[in-house]
Structures are given as structure tokens and as C-alpha cells.
Amino acid sequence: MQVPLSAYLILSAFLFLVGVVGVATRRNALIIFMCIELMLNAVNLTFLAFARFLNSMNGQIVVFFVMVVAAAEVAVGLAIIIAIYRNRETMDVADLNLLKW
Amino acid sequence: MEIALFAGFALVAAVAAVLVVIQRHAVYSALYLVIAMVALAGIYVLLEGYFIWIIQIIVYAGAIMVLFLFVIMLLDIPQEDVLWARRDWGQIVAAAALSLVLLVEMVLAVGRGALRGAQAAPASAQDFGTTLTVGRMLFTDYLFPFEITSVILLVAMVGALVLAKRQFK
Question: Is A83 on the interface with B (CB under 8 A)?
Fold first, then answer.
């Protein structure tokens, strides 16, 4: 008995939803960043599931590129968070309202 | 057997993901995120993404999460009040509305499309998802994007150094 495609898609949708809830409810910039990583992983799972069920390797290549971009994004994003913390002594996104009108 | 493995990994990943969001301290969130990523790596094996599986363990659960933990260690992060204790009704309503819209959208999408289509996986080739196949595709069909990624990584490296460097005046 095989695992159906919908099971993978439902798990992926759930993980993505949890990531969105985290981004919407948390204030700590680092945890928001982790929730974005969670959403990226959920999308990767979708790509891999469709790659397997369509019998095409292209989905796995896309996942590879997503991981490369995610690694670059994490490096730059964490550097920005460190720079903000050094200047403002805070990591609460509610305090970072310089551009708010 | 496959169903049991999938159910186990999916349960661990889902519970760990929820715990990432509801933990008050960033260190626990990071550690639960590692658990979620390792569980997802197990599901990648079920989907025959063997190269992606080891990359997930090494790059995601290894390198990226160590970077997160280093930043948490460097910076003094206060514990955060839970959402309902902050009494920020605007954010609560906005978050609930956004999540609800997304939930309805996903239930509709999965219910209408995925549950009706073909559910059985086709028989895969012997070398599906191996490092050999992925490498061969990267260096033939996807050569140009692959070269571009090296530029992206270089830019990210230089950018992270410039941003994080303490400025001497």
C-alpha cells in the first residue's frame, strides 16, 4: 500500500500554514525568519512529491536551487538582524517602525 | 510499512512545526525546527529524493540551523509574551483573518484537485533521485542556472560580511 499524493500535499499545506501563522503572530525577527524557513521546506516537500508522482527529476533540481537561495537568504538576513540589533538594541519587529508613516 | 513511516515522520514534523511557533524562547524554536527538518528529510527518502535528503540534513539541519543558533547565542534575546497576552487586537484579528483565508484556500485546492487525480506513484527508474542523476542534470540541462547560483552565493557572502562587520570610526 502506497502513500497517496494527497497525503504529502496535505502535510505540506499544514506546514506552510503553520509558518504563515508564525510570521503573522510572532514579534521576534529571528523566529519570523525561522517560520519563513519552515514555509520554504513545505514548498520543497510539494516539489518533491510532484517530482515523484510525475516521474520527473526536474522538481528535485528546483528543490536544489531553492535550498541554495535559502542558504544565501539566511546568511544575508541574519547579518541584517545583527546589524539592526547593534544599532537599535532590539529584535522586536514592532519597534522597527522608522519607515512607518 | 511505507504508510507507517510516512505517518511517523509526518506526525513528528507537524508537531515540531507547531512547537516552533508557540515556544517563547528562540533557542527552543530553533531546536524544534531542527527536529522538523530532520523529519522532513525522512519523508524526502520516501519520495526517492536521495540527494536532496542528504543536502537537507547537511545544509538545512546542519549549516543553516547552526547559523541561527550562533546568532541567538551572540545576541541577548528576551522572552516574548504570547500573542493573546499582549492584547494587540489589531494583530490578532489580522493574523486570524490571514490564516483563515489561507486555510480555506488550501482546503479547497487540495480537496478539489489533489484528492481526485491519480494517486498511485508510477514506477520510478533505478537511478531516480540519486546524486549521479541530479549531478548529470545540473551540468547539462541546468548548467546556466547552476553557474548563476555560484554568483548568488558569492554576493551573499560578501553582503553578509559587509553588513555584519563592526564599523570602526
Answer: yes
- 3-class secondary structure for chain B? CHHHHHHHHHHHHHHHHHHHHHCCCHHHHHHHHHHHHHHHHHHHHHCCCHHHHHHHHHHHHHHHHHHHHHHHHHCCCCCCCCHHHHCCHHHHHHHHHHHHHHHHHHHHHHHHHHCCCCCCCCCCCCCCCCHHHHHHHHCCCCHHHHHHHHHHHHHHHHHHHHHHCCCCC
Residue A71 lies in domain: 28-92
Q: What is the pLDDT of residue B168?
A: 55
Residue B98 lies in a domain: no
Look up residue A26 and give its DSSP letter.
Answer: -
User: How many structural domains does chain B have?
Assistant: 1
User: Is A53 in Cβ contact with B118 (below 8 Å)?
Assistant: yes
pLDDT of residue B114: 61
β-sheet bridge partners, residue A98 = none
What CATH number should be reported for the domain holding residue A54? 1.10.287.3510
Nearest to A22 among B20, B59, B114 (CB): B20
Tell whether B102 is covered by a domain: no
How far B3 CA sits from the closest chain A CA (Å)?
A: 6
pLDDT at B119 over 70: no
Closest CA to B166 of A93, A79, A96: A79
Question: Does a structural domain hold residue B73?
Answer: yes
For chain A, what is the domain count?
Answer: 1
Whether residue B123 has pLDDT greater than 80: no
Does the CB of A96 have a partner CB in chain B at under 8 Å? no
